[in-house]
Write a structure and sequence with these properties.
By secondary structure, the chain is mainly α. Helices cover about 75% and strands about 0% of the residues. It has one domain.
Length: about 210
């Protein structure tokens, strides 16, 4: 039990690394929470700090989730070999997502968890057979909605809402289906202010300059 607790704490701290905040301080010496949407995530970093910085923040936030369910989970499983592999990876993945959203380094205020959630799914796809197909459909769903609407928030919510159906379609385990349902609810909850702006027609769209 001690190793599991240490794994959860380590995963939370890994997720808590405020990538967008650090990038804002290093690149422009600003507190990114005071600009744009105020969100400590990749989309706001892209709008405030530029395309290259936004992509770097996105990749690092995803990397946090991937590391939590691969290398960190593997290390804990070496210490506790009787524990279910999938369940431990899911627990550490959720802990990492929570760290990103409620980082201890910024008084428990962080991002919305989309990039880190994708990272968790990428990491899990290396460990769980058949999950790569689910991940591909989730990403394609996100891309399709984004290209049509140019709304990152709507694309994120809809692709996560579709994820449980994809899990069932590809006959994933019950823990993974439950995980996907929790993620869908969690992402929708974190984007509740975006939902209001979408219904009001005030949600900013994202375009890339050539």
């Amino acid at each position: 039990m001690l190793w599991i607790i240490l794994g959860i704490i380590t995963s939370y701290l890994l997720g808590s690394i405020p990538t967008a905040y650090i990038a804002g301080r290093l690149l422009k010496n600003i507190d990114i929470r005071k600009f744009g949407s105020g969100n400590v995530g990749a989309t706001n970093a892209l709008r405030i700090l530029g395309k290259k910085a936004g992509i770097c923040v996105l990749l690092f936030d995803a990397l946090k989730g991937a590391l939590a369910v691969t290398f960190l989970s593997d290390f804990v499983l070496m210490q506790v070999p009787v524990l279910s592999n999938d369940i431990l990876r899911i627990i550490l993945g959720i802990s990492c997502i929570f760290g990103h959203n409620w980082t201890v380094f910024l008084r428990f205020k962080g991002g919305k968890g989309v990039a880190t959630t994708f990272g968790v799914l990428i990491g899990l796809s290396f460990k769980i057979p058949g999950l790569g197909a689910v991940l591909s459909l989730v990403f394609l769903s996100w891309l399709a909605v984004f290209l049509v609407t140019r709304l990152v928030s709507l694309a994120s919510m809809l692709c996560c809402a579709a994820m449980p159906a994809f899990m069932v379609l590809f006959k994933q385990s019950v823990p993974l289906i439950i995980f996907s349902l929790l993620i869908a609810i969690f992402i929708a909850y974190r984007h509740r202010s975006n939902l209001i702006r979408i219904f009001q027609g005030k949600e900013p769209r994202l375009y890339f300059k050539k």
